[in-house]
């Protein structure tokens, strides 16, 4: 199943003629509103026209959850490496931003953009890359949480160690919330700009 999905992703990227250039990770700053989640299939026409620049990647993540300021240091390098491998690109080609709270609750939010690639394609690739390759019980289920259409990526065998992933698209970016507690996921999703 993973091989078929990977082949489909690579063929779609090749047909789209996607140009991929390295983009540096950016630190979080003031959030700004962005477009809502979509359920459209990936296509070369998704995203801004060449004359438009997409908003900075960090603007799709919140700076705070309630009275807690979120950390913006990079985490999840192993997942991003697997995602890059799934898509057949270099890790440095992703534009990323992070917002996390590792105190009283564990919430990790990641925003990912790959120039020239639709967010929906990133979301599909995430489903096969989120957990280590030897994880055989991954489930992918659509859900609506706090009025947002998300995809829940879960694996019972490693859930206690790695948590559950909640993904959604925001314009040309993929947003991922990783947590052990569904209530924390609701709070994080509600805080998205």
Order of helices and strands: HEEHEEHEEHEEH
What's the total number of strands? 8
Write down the Rg. Answer: 16 Å
Task: Write down the domain tally.
Answer: 1
Number of helices: 5
- Main sheet record: 6 strands, antiparallel
Low-confidence stretches: 1-49
**Helicity level:** 25-40%
Q: Averaged pLDDT, please? A: 79
Question: Which strand order spans the largest sheet, edge to edge or round the barrel?
Answer: 3-4-8-7-6-5
Overview of this protein structure:
- With 193 residues, the chain is an alpha+beta fold.
- It has one domain (2-191).
- Helices cover 26% and strands 26% of the residues.
- It is built from five helices and eight strands.
- It has helices spanning 2-16, 77-87, 119-129, 159-162, 182-191; strands at 64-65, 68-69, 95-102, 106-113, 138-145, 148-155, 164-170, 173-179.
- The strands form two sheets. A six-stranded antiparallel sheet has the order 3-4-8-7-6-5, with helices on both faces. The protein has a two-stranded antiparallel ribbon with strand order 1-2.
- Strand 1 and strand 2 form a beta hairpin.
- Helix 1 (2-16) runs antiparallel to helix 3 (119-129) and helix 2 crosses helix 3.
- The longest helix is centred in the first third of the chain and has 15 residues, at 2-16.
- Mean pLDDT is 79; it is low at 1-49.
């Amino acid at each position: 199943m993973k091989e078929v999905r990977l082949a489909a992703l690579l063929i779609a990227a090749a047909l789209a003629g996607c140009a991929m250039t390295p983009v540096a990770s950016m630190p979080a700053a003031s959030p700004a509103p962005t477009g809502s989640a979509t359920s459209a299939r990936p296509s070369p026409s998704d995203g801004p026209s060449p004359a438009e620049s997409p908003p900075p990647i960090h603007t799709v993540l919140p700076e705070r959850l309630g009275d807690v300021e979120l950390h913006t240091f990079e985490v999840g390098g192993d997942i991003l490496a697997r995602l890059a491998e799934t898509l057949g690109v270099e890790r440095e080609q992703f534009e990323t931003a992070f917002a996390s709270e590792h105190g009283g609750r564990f919430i990790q939010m990641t925003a990912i953009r790959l120039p020239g690639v639709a967010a929906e394609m990133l979301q599909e690739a995430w489903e096969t890359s989120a957990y280590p390759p030897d994880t055989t019980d991954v489930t992918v289920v659509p859900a609506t949480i706090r009025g947002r259409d998300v995809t829940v990526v879960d694996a019972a065998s490693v859930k206690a160690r790695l948590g559950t992933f909640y993904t959604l698209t925001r314009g040309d970016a993929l947003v991922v919330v990783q947590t052990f507690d569904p209530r924390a996921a609701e709070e994080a999703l509600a805080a998205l700009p």
